[in-house]
Amino acid sequence: MRDDDTTLTADLLLQAYKVGVFPMSEGRDDPDVFWVDPKRRGVIPLDGFRISRSLARTMRRGHLTASINAAFAETVAGCADRNETWINDTIFDLYQSLFFRKQAHSVEIWRGSDLVGGVYGVTIGAAFFGESMFSRTTDASKMALAYLVDRLRLGGFTLFDTQFITPHLSSLGAIEISRDAYRKQLATALDEQASFTALGALPPAQDVIQRNAQTS
User: Which pTM was predicted?
Assistant: First the structure.
């Protein structure tokens, strides 16, 4: 469904998420936005995310560091920095608006002062709607997801929506569920409370790895 007749606002975007749909564009230069409601939905069960041995080694090395909400706009820009992207100017501005309202968040991965990976999404109730991620060095996006899942668990979230499923996400524990099953999980999550920021700064990598080993 294209958004031809209705002005797309941050409030309308949040309402869309609440009924199970999300926006996309055909490309960065296409001004139109359309709504997507997949028959099959990708989710990461928060007790099913797996930190592999190789990823754990990367996290322990310390050459990459993680932060939250330190470079939201740059993270979205990183996600859009590819040959084909669904993030146009309208979508970029909408997520920036949600970030200023503390309803969109990012996890960033750094190598020194260089942003080399990250993930961002939207929070409503106890649901996290993952929008996109990017990586400019080995394991950066996986590391961002590891910190994100840890934050969602500790913050009381119950749903991590990845929209679609890819081989990359599947290797990390993502699964595909039906539209009806997704909407049931969504309804439950929207009735619950969670917090992305109350826990403060991200914990040391070793704490994230240990908690993952205990829960996955």
Answer: 0.92
